[in-house]
From TrEMBL, chains A, B:
<dbReference type="InterPro" id="IPR050306">
    <property type="entry name" value="PfkB_Carbo_kinase"/>
</dbReference>
<protein>
    <submittedName>
        <fullName>Fructokinase</fullName>
    </submittedName>
</protein>
<dbReference type="InterPro" id="IPR029056">
    <property type="entry name" value="Ribokinase-like"/>
</dbReference>
<keyword id="KW-0808">Transferase</keyword>
<keyword id="KW-0547">Nucleotide-binding</keyword>
<dbReference type="InterPro" id="IPR002173">
    <property type="entry name" value="Carboh/pur_kinase_PfkB_CS"/>
</dbReference>
<feature type="domain" description="Carbohydrate kinase PfkB">
    <location>
        <begin position="16"/>
        <end position="303"/>
    </location>
</feature>
<keyword id="KW-0067">ATP-binding</keyword>
<dbReference type="InterPro" id="IPR002139">
    <property type="entry name" value="Ribo/fructo_kinase"/>
</dbReference>
<keyword id="KW-0418">Kinase</keyword>
<comment type="similarity">
    <text>Belongs to the carbohydrate kinase PfkB family.</text>
</comment>
<dbReference type="InterPro" id="IPR011611">
    <property type="entry name" value="PfkB_dom"/>
</dbReference>
<dbReference type="Pfam" id="PF00294">
    <property type="entry name" value="PfkB"/>
</dbReference>
């Protein structure tokens, strides 16, 4: 268990955050289309939460590395070049004999339904280079994407094991959705089974509902704690968040004053939270800073925005 | 063996051509892009040779049905609607729990390298409805797509078996390419193994080279005959084609006078050839008519163009 006023000892390592998971192409429709799929024009973007978080934390002033797998194809080359243009280290990104994963999103005013084309992303393997990257990092982060399919799942099981033995802080985004999961498999059960093996989880209300069914937020929080979660940060959209370490439960009001685009707001939280922990803040302070970074991001369009250094955000939000 | 002046007896069945195989989305870049993949804009099109051939033959004046599998997603719904708008029967198209297959083509002035996202197309199963469609048809056509992956391969093995026992003419496009094949499997070997089970094959020079290595066209033709092919139509691009039934080898000059776009020229040949056989022409006449339809198509942009009835083309080309 973590005391909220503790400063988590993260040791002295050359890298701060290791983000492990999907790097992919988002192919997004140019127009809104409510169900008919008549829209023909699409635009490609680089996507995937790990690279978004890694880029964010760099801008906030800490170091990061990405571990992913992309195809030996034009899309893979494009994604690597995009990251290199942002001065990211791409040496942890594996090139595999598969198509670079792709998500088609046809924009909708109701609920956009993505179509998933997964191939390279879950071919990520555990190798000596990944082992070294874990040993050199303070925090490791991953979401449900890489654990949803083998062999990436086995890779992540090794990552968790190594990270635990090397004393890294492990953050897990339980963004469970049956559509990304291996067909015919009980993904919710697997997600629940690894919650006790990580340190911090940040479910949304929707994530909790997909895992446990509908219930009140406080009850959902308890279910995560019963599964062995050490620190649960449950986000409630415009209603802020509730956080518990199993001993103390806190409510956080949303710090957002202007909401332009919610894309990437959760990853912005993770980014601020991790950057604050690395900079020596307590868990309680890091939570406030995470929500501040998320509120900052909400003012701009896009999953990754030009964040200032963490101390600028800290001052802006009077934290 | 077929005598070239024979009229193939195709019996009295309610449907003329059954085209079995891939129905998918082609996502094509709006601009030419030679290797850098910097082009961001793409446009979706409906794709897949079976539906192209089925639509072509309808325009030429014979009846057709398509058997394919698409996903339970927006792309699948879009593809069915497109076919319905063309008055095609879509009842043979299976909806499966997978993403509608997608091919991304980034246009290039050198060689465009497609990225394949296959999922729903190879989930096609053999069912009572497919069995009935075979019994009701005179000709069945397929290409390398459905045989390149299981379970669709097993479905096609059943299709071939049923078609043979019901006396259908079987046309096979041996458009072998390792990129669509199941990774780690010798696709060329499999393609060779089914050549003796079909009636007509139409390899291009490139197909022959991928199957046998480089050699002179006449030598390649012999290799197909040695594998048990009954009628081989080997296309040589602007140099026309050579055709053999194992007894007689004919050369055909290209009938093209104006080449605007070569996309779909091979499928236009098949369409004209099948339509002519159905209308009671001999194999020799059907070959001429197939090349005439292909030459007609070359004057227009797109895989499927507004073909006139077969007798109009026959007259235009003085056949």
């Amino acid at each position: 268990m973590f005391e909220l006023d503790d400063i988590i000892p993260l040791g002295d390592k050359p890298n701060d955050l290791l983000a492990v998971g999907e790097l992919l192409i988002d192919m997004i429709s140019n127009e809104y289309d409510d169900g008919s799929f008549e829209c023909d024009g699409y635009t490609k973007f680089s996507g995937g939460a790990p690279s978004n978080i890694a880029m964010n934390v760099n801008r906030l002033g800490i170091r990061s590395e990405i571990v992913s797998a992309v195809g030996n194809d034009g899309f893979g080359t494009y994604l690597l070049r995009r990251l290199q243009q942002e001065d990211m280290d791409t040496k942890g990104i594996q090139r595999v004999d598969a198509s670079t994963s792709l998500v088609v999103v046809t924009k909708s005013r109701t609920t956009p339904i993505p179509i998933f084309y997964r191939d390279a992303d879950y071919q990520m393997t555990f190798d000596a280079s990944l082992e070294q990257r874990i040993a050199n990092s303070k925090i490791v982060h991953f979401s449900c994407w890489p654990i949803s399919r083998t062999p990436a799942r086995h890779t992540l099981e090794r990552v968790i094991e190594e990270a635990r033995s090397q004393g890294l802080l492990i953050g897990f985004d339980p963004n469970y959705h049956p559509m990304i999961w291996q067909r015919g498999e009980d993904g919710a059960q697997y997600v629940k089974s690894i919650i006790s093996k990580v340190d911090v989880i940040k479910p949304s209300e929707d994530d909790a509902e997909r895992l446990f069914g509908k219930d009140e937020p406080v009850k959902q929080l308890e279910k995560f704690l019963e599964l062995g979660a050490k620190l649960v940060i449950m986000t409630l959209g415009k209603d802020g968040a509730i956080v518990s370490n199993g001993k103390e439960t806190l409510s956080f009001d949303s710090l957002a004053t202007e909401i332009v685009d919610t894309t990437g707001a959760g990853d912005a939280f993770w980014s601020g939270f991790y950057a604050a922990l690395i900079k020596g803040h307590s868990i309680r302070e890091a939570l406030h800073l995470g929500f501040a970074v998320s509120a900052y991001k909400l003012r701009f369009t896009g999953a990754v925005v030009h964040l200032p250094r963490l101390d600028v955000i800290k001052e802006q939000f009077s934290l």
